[in-house]
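Usage example:
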Amino acid sequence: MSDTGDLRELYQEVIFDHNRHPRNFGRLADANRVAEGHNPLCGDNVTVYLKLEGGRVADVKFEGQGCAISTASASLMSEAVKGRPVEEVEKLFRSFHAMIVDDNVAPEDLGKLEVLSGVKEFPVRVKCATLPWHTLHNALLGKHEAATTE
Amino acid sequence: MSAIHDEVRHLQAPALDVETVRADFPILAQTVRGKPLAYLDNAATTQKPLAVIEAERRYYLEYNSNIHRGVHLLSQKATDAYEAAREKVRRFLNARHAEEIVFVRGTTEAINLVAQSWGRSQLKPGDEIVLSLLEHHSNIVPWQLLGQQTGTVLKVAPINDAGELMFEEFLRLLGPRTRLVAVAHVSNALGTVNPARAIVEAAHERGVPVLLDGAQAAAHGPVDVQALDCDFYALSGHKLYAPTGIGVLYGKRELLEAMPPWQGGGDMIRTVSFDKTEYNVLPHKFEAGTPNIAGTIGLGAALDYVAGIGLEAIAAHEAELLRHATEEARRIPGMRLVGTARDKAAILSFVLEGIHPHDVGTILDSEGVAIRAGHHCAMPVMTRFGIPGTARASFAVYNTHAEVDALMAAIRKAQKFFGR
Ligand SMILES: Cc1ncc(COP(=O)(O)O)c(C=O)c1O
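Running the assembly step on the lines above writes:
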């Protein structure tokens, strides 16, 4: 088994790129939903800002401190959900979650988000990838307590 | 040699044969992800030597029985072994009396015991407890809970950029309302060795008792509670080559005697009626219910094991590993040590420029190098340095120069991988 091979599966170029240059990074001044997420294991924090308009995610931004996996996941997520209807976003969350935790589902077409599928081989890192999504989910529900990965 | 406390004479320690030691720890001889394991997460928990595993096994195979209650032979054997372990701990800490040794689950439980028994019975609203910023959460949260129950207040002594306690500031916090000083003997996040003797002296001058959190200190150099003159000392067996689920609270006899029990049940009583219960004598007053008998016997075996090698020799070996690691780390551009105290245990906390500690941990793991990444249950320390966490390598008696070199090679690989 080539370990570097596994590592390359986890850390794909796209992930490095989104880690170095996260998209939609920062505060969203006219957000009408905000949620915070926290990973107690490593101390990572993420805040997701949403502007919901007519049942769609009209705009999204995030900020926080995290590892390459969580930063890239948040960045890719923000690109994937921007402009989409809320139901589609929730469905995407479920499919994304299934892709990285569930062995038995045939992955749907998740587009660019599929670069994170390598996380499945690194169980302790799954929470890094899902934290931004749990936080987004809470923002959509209008929940105020911080999302955690526990 | 790391001066775990001031009384350690700088004896010429006999060199330790690390390969012989490693043979006692079969778990180390494995490959992880195709690479030889370099286990450098000893501050989280140490591996267990065969002697400890054997001692637990023998208990279950040959004389498993409850203690302090049976008239039959097995119970007597189990009781003897359990109490023999207490005597071993007494000797290990150089406590005056065996009944000053209370068995608990670990450091966390020891500190909670002091907070709930001593603290709740002695302290009043506005009374102050002085901690340092270096504390593990388990020496913070029990005092916060106590504060909610009794109205006591926490005062926190700061640390400097090297991660050392600012002693003058600490002294300034000792005031007319100070009732307890509770500090780490050695910091788990940075490796800083606190000047425990000086802390105790300053506190005692003002009539204030001192609790030392010895979780990180006990395995890495001699501890002498009489020389330190501390009032309480807490430690965890599992960081000392012993099983999990067993630890020790040392307390001066006068203090323990004056403290009410904190848990009620079997073994901690002398007589019970529905009108009145008379408590058992020390230390049984604080050991309600069937304890971790196998773990306690394992702890005794671990202390025998450590004594066989010699704590001076262990301290010297670890100091040499730390010296080598520190020197190598300084050669790596983009690697910054967090915690550079002059007096330091064998813990290397670091950050790599542009690479999150969690990613460092994963890449090192793929090279067989086991370290810890994160805040190490010491979030205030991380906040002090303005970082979310560090990567931390921590050394023990069985670690080698070659493992330090494997760590450094893996760090260079992580940097290359991240294009740094
Ligand atoms: C300094 C310090 N205090 C307390 C603890 C808590 O020890 P335990 O989890 O064994 O109760 C630790 C362990 O991580 C520690 O390093």
